[in-house]
Amino acid sequence: MLPITHIIDHRDIRHLIAALAILMGFGCTSDEPAAVIPGTIVYTIEKVELPERDGSPPATTSDVPHQQIDVDPVPEVNDELFRRVFSVPGIESQPSVVAGWDGIWLSEQLEIMVQEAIIGEREFGHIHHDGSLHIFLEPNRAIEAIKTGWAVAHPYAVERRDGWDGFVMLYTPQSIDELNVTFQLIIDSFNYVTGQGLQATDYYD
């Protein structure tokens, strides 16, 4: 019998392993480590429960360009958002491939494990001038973020267009407590796309 790597491309295997690791991490309730396939690297991602967001969600447009309506960023919170995001190893600030936003890009040193979660080139999200942002989340995590009031599905995700599942807008954080949740979701996205296992709290000031 031929080795499985002769039948299935090795990139597909790593993609599958990353997806399984994410699912196991999200569903893990035990302190015991998940089983690891010999000869592979599996990142266990601890699920952080999302609190319910206070107040009504901001209004957004229902079409593209998908924008938040009448929300201004709080300067010190917005500054901390940018500081945290672009202090994460492997994340780079580059012009977005969409309009003139601040793109959240993966460095060349990181392997992209979920190619479908890339907007273009190496961009997996971007921050708008009002402090809201678009980003890819693991689809079940996206549903959770929407249900708890932290996100809204992008119109392309609502239309179920191919390649847009899990693409959401995260609302502008108005306080450090809100930023903590927003940033947790950004780290969730990073871990999902790269197969890493970073902890959001490691990047608090």
Written account of the structure:
With 205 residues, the chain is an alpha+beta fold. It has 2 domains: 1-47; 75-203, Aspartate Aminotransferase, domain 1 (Alpha-Beta Complex), CATH 3.90.1150. The protein contains 5 helices and 6 strands; from the N terminus they run ααββββαβαβα. The longest helix is centred in the C-terminal third of the chain and has 19 residues, at 176-194. 32% of the residues are buried.
Short note summarizing the structure:
The protein is an alpha+beta fold and 205 residues long. It has two domains: 1-47; 75-203, Aspartate Aminotransferase, domain 1. 30% of the residues lie in helices and 13% in strands.
Q: Domains counted in the coordinates: how many? A: 2
Question: Mind describing the biggest β-sheet?
Answer: 6 strands, antiparallel
Q: From the 3D coordinates, which CATH architecture of the largest domain would you assign?
A: Alpha-Beta Complex
> Could you estimate the helical fraction of the residues in percent?
25-40%
**Quaternary:** single chain
CATH overall fold name of the largest domain: Aspartate Aminotransferase, domain 1
Distance between the termini: 54 Å
In order across it, which strands form the biggest sheet? 1-2-3-4-6-5
Q: Averaging pLDDT over every residue, what do you get? A: 83
The rounded Rg comes to 17 Å
User: Which percent band covers the strand fraction?
Assistant: 5-15%
Structural class, by secondary structure, is alpha+beta
Q: Work out the number of β strands.
A: 6
Number of helices: 5
Task: Tell me the name of the CATH class of the largest domain.
Answer: Alpha Beta
Instruction: Return residue spans where pLDDT drops below 50 for at least 5 consecutive residues.
Output: 1-44
- Secondary-structure element order, N to C: HHEEEEHEHEH
Q: Based on CA inertia axes, which overall geometry fits?
A: globular
